[in-house]
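Newbie here. two chains, one complex. Structure please?
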Amino acid sequence: MKPNLNEHVLDTLSKSNHLNHLKQLQAYLTTLGHAHTHFYAFKLIRFCTLTLSNLTYARLIFDHIPSLNTHLFTAMITAYAAHPATHPSALSLFRHMLRSQPPRPNHFIFPHALKTCPESCAAESLHAQIVKSGFHEYPVVQTALVDSYSKVSGGLGNAKKVFDEMSDRSVVSFTAMVSGFARVGDVESAVRVFGEMLDRDVPSWNALIAGCTQNGAFTQGIELFRRMVFECNRPNGVTVVCALSACGHMGMLQLGRWIHGYVYKNGLAFDSFVLNALVDMYGKCGSLGKARKVFEMNPEKGLTSWNSMINCFALHGQSDSAIAIFEQMVEGGGGVRPDEVTFVGLLNACTHGGLVEKGYWYFEMMVQEYGIEPQIEHYGCLIDLLGRAGRFDEAMDVVKGMSMEPDEVVWGSLLNGCKVHGRTDLAEFAAKKLIEIDPHNGGYRIMLANVYGELGKWDEVRNVWRTLKQQKSYKVPGCSWIEVDDQVHQFYSLDKSNPKTEDLYIVLESLVGFRNEVMGEP
DNA sequence: TTAGGGTTAG
């Protein structure tokens, strides 16, 4: 039996993925006089945008339809709104729609249009349009408004206002608000809104856990992750990516391993994000072999995969391996192009390996070959590299040639180099710069006092300490931690609060004694 | 056809 036209079109579209097939079908429909009917035009545009990702051709079809309806506008605007690069096209087509009449926008189209708002005033203007069109009480539209406002700079107040005025808040609108607070770094408010939720699903947990880890609240993120598992919400790929990031920052290898097991048992090992996060976690926790193994297993190594692996090696001073991975990336990385993060890792690797010339060379390569404008991070690495090598004239030339103001890392790196090489004159200069940037940082003043001590300038030492006492700004002590049996133990300098301090010192002294014996030192 | 969540950097 011959299929009817409707079935034939749908069948052809579902089986092909080539523009040529689409064109043949279009020609066929034209001969039958159906190419511009709303139903078939809609199908063609959806196929073009969703299957072929060919927005240019979709627009061509769209522009040749003599009378457009709301569905066709929605299809085209949705496609534009799906990618940031085409957001301006979405917005301009939507404005065109508002000017032409009819067709009028329906409530389905506003959430898509709202996704494209680059700044607060665009969201406000759409908000006004929503009110004018009478869709301002549709919960989905209100949720889209909350989300859109919370994503534009300075829009959180409006997001909160819309959210507070909503009479029918869903788990989605709550989640949008949680993310909104997290985005501006207000973890406390994010936790509060999360606490007010009656229903929670996986994305809402993810929003809060991501909010914590993105704002450096790693312990809190881990606690929430444990609670999520305890309350029988099944973590998905997004959850484990956030939790792994927290594990890496906290050095929690055991939990990281448990998550790795969970990833395998739950079919998440094919997610490139998850694999990259595993590489990063193992690398930060010092398991370089495991990091490498996971990296090698990833069949779709993207930019982040390569960067994470390079950073792992750089972090542990394995500069040769980091450079080897970089070369592999450039030569056989499947067209993956290094970015600014790659070069931070690479320069770090050179710093830790004392490879000054190579570091310079990569810095040049980044600018000349890849056209990447050096960021403050790259300058920080370069100064660190030169400072450690005692090449202070060159380091100062780099500082003078910077296109931005040197930050604490730049001066701090220089100061470190000065300390190693006994350049007290330059150390004084760098320490003063650090104090200029952050006058309330006691650590910088202590560094300056130490430099004066080296120079025998005792009056200056007393002056610095006087200021320190007046400001009451003492140095935040450095801290390290180790994980034993799933418990993290923290240690501060001179801290004897651990109940096993005495035993720890006995072991430490025996280790030092052993080292001295081996090294032939007294 | 409509709304929320993700990794890497001194």
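Moderator note: Chain A has 29 helices and two strands. The two ends of chain A are 98 Å apart (CA to CA). Thread marked as resolved.
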